[in-house]
Structures are given as structure tokens and as C-alpha cells.
Design a protein that fits this description.
- The complex is a heterodimer of chains A (795) and B (152).
- Chain A is 27% helix and 26% strand.
- The two termini of chain A are 46 Å apart.
- Chain A has 795 residues and is of the alpha+beta class.
- In chain A, a hairpin with a 4-residue loop joins β10 and β11 (216-221).
- Chain A has 20 helices and 30 strands.
- In chain A, the strands form seven sheets. Chain A has a seven-stranded mixed sheet, sandwiched between helices. Chain A has a seven-stranded mixed sheet with strand order 4-8-16-15-14-9-30.
- Chain B is α+β, with helices and mostly antiparallel strands.
- In chain B, β6 and β7 (102-114) form a beta hairpin.
- In chain B, α1 crosses α3 and α2 (23-29) crosses α3 (116-150).
- In chain B, 25% of the residues are buried.
- The chains are: A alpha+beta (795), B alpha+beta (152).
Chain lengths: 795, 152
């Protein structure tokens, strides 16, 4: 029964904003409980060292300290964290799972790894007691550089393994060697991408509270996955999941690291709360966040692309190293995303991709917004740019010649995606997106503008890059939709919310199905007591998977409404309509019930509920897609570079995006804006710098640069809608899109702006310092008249 | 971080040597040294306060070991520091040579730091190191002058 569309694709203001903007939205650090204790962690100052002794006796004596725990105090509870994502079934895949423990037992493997937990009456006392703890270590050489880590097997992060290899995976299709043999041109380069922090505005925080009378454990946690946290902690602690409630209230940004589970702090606070029978709180401080929260992006690629002389891609080979940090609890999601996303929107018949995941003495690596996708896009887009230059083909044109046509879907890429399902593109229409972005940035007329600028002494350049984003993967999410006695609608789902606007988009979907105002739909997310089945917020899947579950549950409630109303009004269901919170007979609207009246009728105090029916107007439903849906888009950028200072001003940023059916353009644009800001940070500012001993040298916002409001330009967006055939609402995810091609498009624009210097950008971040070095190393520009655009090279 | 250089003292080599082996003088000369005492043969222990950028007046418990002594020509130092904001590990070698009426000291040192002080102070560490070295050498020069004047 299709409902008339009112809210879908409407610019609806967010239901949650009133609470957020007036400071009434609860965050974990707002939780204050009587008798609550506070925690500080003693963390390793060494990246790699054997732990010989931890003396906590003086700390235990400090007034106000309630308990101090080391690994030795954990007893049976000292077991490794689970492997969160086992690798997909790929032939000949080698994977060495090494997960962390709550507290270090034998040796420390990264700076910041927790060694002891201090529980005290206040955070101040706990912090003071850190210096009472004497940690004795035997320092070891640190494994920092990826290539050196593989060359020197005598220094190993995990000594039970023969080397620092965490995994080796080969995937591909076709026959790259044969494609290479018949290529007219082969472009080969080495590409680097370095580590950054996710830098969510809210650090991690946990409150654990054991009620010894009710025998119930309540945990407030900034996690993106409250339900798996509940299930896993219950199992670790020997409790029933029903005894554990995990609440992820409002969370100030997730970006991936908050899906990691279980963080050491997450494992040990609940355990200590039960032991002490007191509530315990820990809030990560900003400096801890630089060590104790997972990071991403270190990869080294040796890649090549084989093409015909008219710019058709015959094949790609890409062999790369992936820095997984000290442990690998998140499996291979990131490098598999890299492998899969490299193919982009292009028709690449022959592909040879291999990666080696490498253990290093650096913080654990788990997905951060984009999660390896930007690396794949960077490699393929850079190779296309280089090939275009070599072949004398226009940048947009070479892309057009390789796009997958709209008639080719679904496209099976024959390799395995991160969700253990084959990489299949559901739908897409890439050419109009590219054409629209080229039009918006003024690609065709730009050479004239560039030449005029160059004559006037400015260096302006543009970049334009395509990408796809695998989103909305399974296994499933669920939702319960209830018509309350007041007639307002309550929706509960298991995914956590970190600022995406779930309270609005889920409400829009449900409001349309039930014919109510969007503000009449109250959404609850991330509280296992409200809804106990689901996985979490990751892989740009919240709107797709939970959104479709909300749609399914609302549709089921709609059927109950129609069925009950039809029997009460003694009419056929076909003549009924739902609108304005009422159900009524289409041709005589006065014959009606409000949803409030109907909810009362559905839950009678006398009489009987007939067999085969249920009381109330409520339904729970689930959505589990066999595979994800593939969003796509094109980014275009215009930059002004000062070759003397290497400072870059972003003049314009254009995103044309296709995330299938749009629920709310305002929120899609918001996700894109945030993503682009994140991407600009990755491309130009953000880099975690480690010395050869594995010491992080810039663990503060004084030295780790985030883009600020003055660095991020207004972002111009346009949308294309190619609905996904893989889910009923036609949705595709959009959470990561903004930051995926940013590095690639930035690099292309810099090269374009500085074409008279002949520089080549093969690494991200390309900081002002790195760019300055490139410009300095380049031959001085020879003054010459810019070449006019050649009309025949553009289609 | 490496600090290397030469410095000329306006006094004879034997006086400079004595100065460099005297914990009381070193405690006065090294900026931020609260205490430095001989606790064994060629072993000194003490407390030093260092400010590097946002890390202000961080206290380090330090242990200094002297070695390879060839009087009055050269010696080496091992310096280990431990504090609430991290650790330092340093080694230095110092050589003295006659230079006209004065003494030329050649020094080379390497210092490793870890923990918070590395994380937030690294950028400034080298300039702070140079500044402390300069202040220390100038203080030693003043002390030397005073000793020569009083004939100590």
C-alpha cells in the first residue's frame, strides 16, 4: 500500500535541533550518579618495551584512591578482546589475528596503551595518583615505518609471529599481465597516504553502574554500536544480556573509531563497577584521544595503470602496504575497502590487487570516515590524471571514456567486499553527474580564466574527480513503531546516533507511511532497553538499513490501522486513507478515527483480543540487505596557489552526488559539507607525526592542524537520484562521501595550478610545507604563453 | 634531538675540568636544577624542572652517570630523567682542549624524549635545549671568572 509522499525528499528541519541547540541533549559526560567514582589510566610512555614491573602500592595508599588495578588483578577477566570483523572468505587469504587486552600484561606495543587503572573519589585524585605508580620497562626498538617493518623481522610487534605481517590478501579479475602486454601506455607510480586522527568534537566516555540489588548493569557509552557492546559485555561478565543496558545517548561525532569494540576502557570499567558496587566514570581527555582512540590512513601503494592510446583503461595493478597499528581487532575492512573502491565508476576489466597489512608500534587502526576508500580513489584518479597528461587527453574526457554505462547494472566486479559479499554495484548513472560537476565548476571555460590569471601573476587551478562509495551493508537493523495513546508515534531502533539527524530522517520515513506530522514522530536510538537487536552505525548504513527497517515496521503498523479501522467502520480497507493523524473513508472523510482513538480501541480494557491479532498498534520489523548499495559522485575544486609561500586558497568546491532516493536534502548536504571539511583536513592539514621511536610528536590541537571555518569554503552541491533496487525505499548511504575523493581532487587542482612548475603530487596530506618543498625542487617556471585549449581534445 | 657545539672558557683546562665535576656548581649552572648530589662514584642524582612550550615546570628525577674519564681531557655523561610528563634519555661526550689562555670545550649530545613531553613539546624541544645549554655555559663562565678572581 504505497503512501503518498509528503516528507520524503523534503527539506525538513531537524527534530533534534531544539534539544541540541539549547544544551538539553544528554551526552555521556552529563551523567552524574550518587557515589560515582572517577578513573584515570596509567599509560605507556614507550611505543615498544617489555613490561617488567608495575608497582601500584603507593597509589593505593593515596587518600581518595579507592582501587588500582593492573593486569595481574584481573584474573580470569584478563582475556584478549574479540576479533570484531573476521576476514571475508577470500581464497588464500592469510590473516594473523592479534587483539589487545584491557591492560598490558607482557609488553607495551604503542605509546598510550593502558597499563593500570586508578579509581578514585575524583578525577583530580585519580590523575594525581598516576605519578605514584612506578612502571618499570625494558625499552625495545620500535616498529614504525611500514617497509622497514617488513625488512627487519628481528624486531616484531608480536613475537609469536614470524614477521610483522598481519595479513596478505590477493584479489583481482581478468588477466592484468595480458592487458599490460597489449597496452599502448603504462603509468607507474608510488603513492603515499598518512595517518590522521578522527578528532570528533566529543572524546570517548563511559559510565558503568552496577546495581547490586537489581543485579543490573547500566552502561552509558559513546559507542556507535550499543547492542553489540551489551551482548559482548554480558558474555564477558557472565551476565544475561537482559541484565545489561547500554545507552549511547547523543554522541558528538563518531566517524568510525567509536564503532571499535571493545576498547580497553570499555572492558574494564563495567568489571570494576561490579567489583566495587559503585558507579564509575571515565571521560577521555583530548590528549588521551590522540593515543587511546583508534586512527587511520597509513598506506603505501605501488600502482600502475595500462591504457590504450585513446585513453581506455585496460587494467590496473596495485600492490600496497596497510598500517594496522599494534593490533588488528577490526580485521581487514579498511584495505578491502581500498581494493574495492579503486575500481570506482570505471570499466576496469583486468585488475591485480594485493595488500600486506603490517603491525606497527602505533595506536590501533580501525575505520575512520572513508575507511580506506579514499586511498583507492586517490590511486585510480591520480593514475588517470597522469595517463591523461601523457596521452594529451583532457581530464574530463579520459574519465568519460571509461565510465560504466547506465545500462550495465547490476555490475559484478567479481571481488569480495568488506561485508563478505561479492562487490556488486546496484545501480548508477555516472555520466550526467560528471557532466553536471564539470558544468558547475566551469571546466570548459576555465583555460581562458587560468591563462588570464597566469598573465596577471596568479596560479589558479581546478580539479575534478569521480568516486563511488559502497554503503548500506548488512547484516540487518530493526525498528519498532508504536502508535501511542496520545496519537503520537514512537520509533525505536538500535543504531546509535552521532549527529546524523536520525531523529528526523527516520521520522520522515514513518510520517509518510502513517500520514502524520514529522514532529509527531518521536525517535529513540541507541538504548538497548528500547530496542535490543541490531549492529550499529558504520559503513554509511544507518539511513539505508535502519531507515528501511523503520519503513517496514511503519508499513506493518499501517496495515494494522487499516485493518482495525475497516472493521470498526465496516468498510473495505481500499476506501480508507491516512492523513493528518487520522484514518478516514476517502469519499466521506467524516467517517474517521484519530490514531489516538484507534490506539485506544486496539488496546481494550474489556472484551477480547481475537486470536491471530495483537493488542495495540505496534510492529517490529527488520531489514537485512544481501549486499550494500553503491553511491557515487563527482567533486570539483578550484584553488589559488601562491608558489612563493605554498599557501592554497580554496576558491570553490562543488559536489554532485547520487545517493539514490534522498530522504532529506538538507541532511544530505550537511553530511557532504562535514565530509568535505574532513577531507580538506586530510588533504592539506592533518597528519599524525611519529618519530623513529614511535613517539607521537603532535598530540595536541596546537600542533595537529584541523581545518577551521576560514579554511573550508562554501560548498556548492547538486543531487542526482538513481534509486537503489536493493532496498524498498531506494536509499544509498552518504555519510562518508564528502571526504573520499578530496585528496585526489586537491592533488589534481594543485598540479593544474602549478602546471608551469611541472610538479607531481603523489602523497596525502600535501601540507603547505610538503608543497613548498615540491615547488622548491621543481625547475623554475619558464615564462611562456599558456597554450590555448585544443577543441578537438574535448568531447 | 642532537645538540653539538664548541664553547671557549676564559680559564685554564684544569679549572674548567674541576668546575664540570662539581655537582654544586652544575646545580647552579643548569637552568631549573633544584638539586644535584653525588650519590656514588661518578653518579649524581637530583631533581630538575623544565618548561617546554605548554609543559611548564615539569619535574624530572634525574640520574647522571659520568664515564670514560680522562682527566683533564674528556668524559661522557649518561642522563636519565623521569617525571609525570614523560621520560628523557640522553648521552653526551665532552672534550676539553687548550685554546690560547683559555679552554675550548667540544660537546656532542643526543637526547630522546617520550610521553607527553614528546607529544606536545617536541616542536620546541630543540630551541629549549639550545637555550638551556647557552644559559648553562654562560653561568659556568661566570663561575669560572669568580673562581679565578678569588684564586679558588
Amino acid at each position: 500500500v504505497p503512501a503518498p509522499t509528503r516528507y520524503l525528499n523534503a527539506r525538513v528541519l531537524r527534530n533534534e535541533d531544539a534539544r541540541l541547540l539549547t544544551g538539553r541533549a544528554p551526552f555521556v559526560d552529563d551523567v552524574q550518579l550518587p557515589g560515582m567514582l572517577h578513573v584515570a589510566f596509567v599509560r605507556s610512555e614507550y611505543a615498544h618495551a617489555r613490561l617488567t614491573n608495575v608497582d601500584v602500592s603507593a597509589a593505593r595508599q593515596r587518600p581518595g584512591v579507592v582501587a588500582v588495578y593492573t593486569a595481574a588483578d584481573l584474573g580470569d577477566y584478563d582475556t584478549p578482546a574479540p576479533l570484531l570483523v573476521p576476514p571475508p572468505p577470500i581464497k588464500d587469504l592469510a590473516f594473523n589475528p592479534c587483539t589487545h587486552r584491557a591492560l598490558v600484561t607482557d609488553k607495551v606495543r604503542y605509546v598510550g596503551e593502558p597499563i593500570a587503572m586508578i579509581v578514585a573519589e575524583s578525577r583530580y585524585i585519580a590523575e594525581d595518583a598516576i605519578r605514584d605508580v612506578i612502571v618499570e620497562v625494558e625499552p625495545l626498538d620500535a616498529v614504525v615505518d611500514l617497509e622497514a617493518a617488513l625488512q627487519n623481522a628481528s624486531v616484531r610487534v608480536h613475537e609469536q609471529l614470524p614477521s610483522n605481517v598481519a595479513a596478505h590478501v590477493v584479489q583481482g579479475k581478468g588477466d592484468y599481465a595480458a592487458a599490460r602486454a597489449r597496452a599502448d601506455v603504462i603509468v607507474t607510480r608510488r603513492f603515499l597516504y598518512d595517518r590522521g586522527a578522527s578528532a570528533a568534537i566529543e572524546n570517548r566516555a563511559i559510565v558503568a553502574s552496577w546495581d547490586p540489588q537489581a543485579e543490573e548493569l547500566t552502561i552509558w557509552d559513546t559507542t556507535q554500536a550499543p547492542i553489540p557492546i551489551r551482548n559482548g559485555l554480558a558474555a564477558r561478565l557472565g551476565l544475561s544480556p537482559a541484565q545489561v543496558r547500554v545507552v549511547a545517548p547523543f554522541v558528538g561525532g563518531g566517524f568510525g573509531p567509536k564503532i571499535m569494540m571493545f576498547y580497553p576502557e570499555e572492558m574494564i570499567l563495567p568489571w570494576a563497577s561490579i567489583r566495587l558496587a559503585r558507579p564509575i566514570k571515565w571521560t577521555e581527555d583530548r590528549q588521551e584521544n590522540f593515543y587511546a582512540t583508534t586512527q587511520e590512513r597509513g598506506q603505501v601503494h605501488e600502482a600502475e595503470m595500462a591504457l590504450t592510446r585513446d585513453g581506455k583503461i585496460l587494467g590496473v595493478r596495485d600492490h600496497f602496504l596497510f598500517d594496522t597499528g599494534a593490533y588488528d581487532p577490526y580485521g581487514l575492512t579498511i584495505p578491502i575497502n581500498t581494493q574495492c573502491t579503486l575500481l570506482g565508476p570505471y570499466d576496469i576489466a583486468n585488475y591485480d590487487s594485493q595488500f600486506t597489512a603490517v603491525f606497527t608500534n602505533k595506536p590501533i587502526v580501525t575505520p575512520v570516515r572513508g575507511a580506506g576508500r579514499q586511498h583507492g580513489v586517490f590511486v585510480s584518479e591520480r593514475l588517470l590524471d597522469l595517463a591523461a597528461k601523457e596521452l594529451g587527453i583532457d581530464r574530463v574526457d579520459i574519465r568519460k571514456r571509461n565510465l560504466i554505462g547506465p545500462d550495465r547494472f547490476p555490475v559484478n566486479h567479481e571481488i569480495m567486499f568488506q561485508d563478505s559479499a561479492p562487490l556488486i554495484y546496484d545501480s548508477g548513472n555516472y555520466l550526467p553527474t560528471l557532466e553536471r560537476a564539470a558544468e558547475m565548476i566551469g571546466f570548459d571555460d576555465f583555460p581562458v580564466e587560468q591563462a588570464a590569471g597566469r598573465a596577471g601573476g596568479t596560479h589558479v587551478g581546478i580539479g575534478i574527480c569521480c568516486y563511488v562509495e559502497g554503503t548500506g551493508i548488512g547484516p540487518y537493523e530493526g525498528a519498532r513503531v508504536t502508535v501511542e495513546p496520545s496519537g503520537s508515534i514512537r520509533v525505536a531502533t538500535g543504531v546509535g546516533t552521532q549527529g546524523q539527524g536520525h531523529y528526523t530522517v527516520f521520522a520522515q520515513i514513518v510520517a509518510d507511511v502513517l500520514g502524520v506530522e514529522v514532529t509527531a514522530v518521536k525517535v529513540t536510538t541507541g538504548d538497548t532497553r528500547e530496542f535490543g537487536w541490531g549492529t550499529g552505525t558504520f559503513a554509511s548504513r544507518g539511513a539505508v538499513v535502519a531507515g528501511n527497517a523503520c519503513h517496514a515496521a511503519a508499513t506493518s503498523v499501517r496495515l494494522k490501522i487499516l485493518s482495525l479501522a475497516a472493521s470498526l467502520l465496516n468498510v473495505s480497507q481500499d476506501v480508507l486513507e491516512l492523513a493528518d493523524g487520522r484514518v478516514f473513508v476517502r469519499d466521506s472523510p467524516e467517517r474517521a478515527f484519530t490514531l489516538a482513538e484507534l490506539a485506544g480501541r486496539a488496546n481494550p480494557l474489556r472484551g477480547a483480543v481475537r486470536p491471530g491479532t495483537e493488542p495495540g498498534l505496534e510492529s517490529t520489523a527488520y531489514f537485512g540487505p544481501d549486499r550494500g548499495s553503491t553511491a557515487s559522485g563527482v567533486h570539483a575544486i578550484k584553488v589559488d596557489v601562491d608558489p612563493e609561500t605554498a599557501m592554497v586558497k580554496i576558491l570553490r568546491y562543488v559536489v554532485v552526488h547520487d545517493c539514490g532516493t534522498i530522504i532529506n536534502p538538507l541532511l544530505v548536504e550537511g553530511q557532504i559539507h562535514g565530509g568535505v571539511a574532513h577531507g580538506i583536513g586530510n588533504a592539506f592539514y592533518e597528519q599524525l607525526v611519529y618519530d623513529e621511536q614511535g613517539q607521537l610528536l603532535n598530540a595536541s590541537f596546537m600542533d595537529y592542524l584541523l581545518p577551521t571555518a576560514t579554511d573550508v569554503p562554501p560548498i556548492e552541491t547538486d543531487h542526482r537520484e538513481t534509486p537503489s533496487p536493493f532496498n524498498p525505499v531506494g536509499l544509498k548511504g552518504v555519510g562518508e562521501a564528502g571526504c573520499i575523493p578530496t585528496g585526489a581532487v586537491f592533488a589534481q587542482a594543485l598540479e593544474d595550478a602549478l602546471s608551469d612548475y611541472g610538479i607531481e603530487i603523489t602523497e596525502i596530506p600535501m601540507s603547505p610545507n610538503a608543497l613548498f618543498d615540491l615547488i622548491s625542487a621543481a625547475a623554475k617556471p619558464v615564462p611562456r604563453a599558456p597554450e590555448p585549449p585544443s577543441p578537438e581534445s574535448r568531447s | 634531538m642532537n645538540l653539538n657545539g664548541t664553547y671557549t672558557f676564559n680559564g685554564p683546562r684544569s679549572k674548567v675540568w674541576d668546575l664540570l665535576q662539581d655537582p654544586e656548581i652544575l646545580a647552579k649552572a643548569l637552568p631549573g636544577t633544584e638539586r644535584l648530589a653525588r650519590t656514588g662514584n661518578d653518579r649524581y642524582e637530583g631533581v630538575m624542572k623544565v618548561s617546554v612550550g605548554p609543559v611548564t615546570a615539569a619535574k624530572f628525577d634525574i640520574v647522571v652517570l659520568l664515564g670514560d674519564k680522562v682527566e683533564p681531557e674528556r668524559f661522557t655523561m649518561q642522563i636519565d630523567g623521569k617525571g609525570a610528563v614523560g621520560y628523557t634519555k640522553g648521552s653526551a661526550s665532552i672534550a676539553l682542549a687548550d685554546h690560547g689562555d683559555g679552554t675550548e670545550m667540544t660537546y656532542s649530545s643526543s637526547v630522546q624524549v617520550g610521553g607527553k613531553i614528546a607529544a606536545v613539546g617536541q616542536r620546541l624541544l630543540e630551541s629549549v635545549g639550545r637555550m638551556m645549554m647557552k644559559q648553562a655555559l654562560e653561568a659556568l663562565q661566570r663561575e669560572l671568572k669568580a673562581r679565578l678572581q678569588t684564586g679558588a
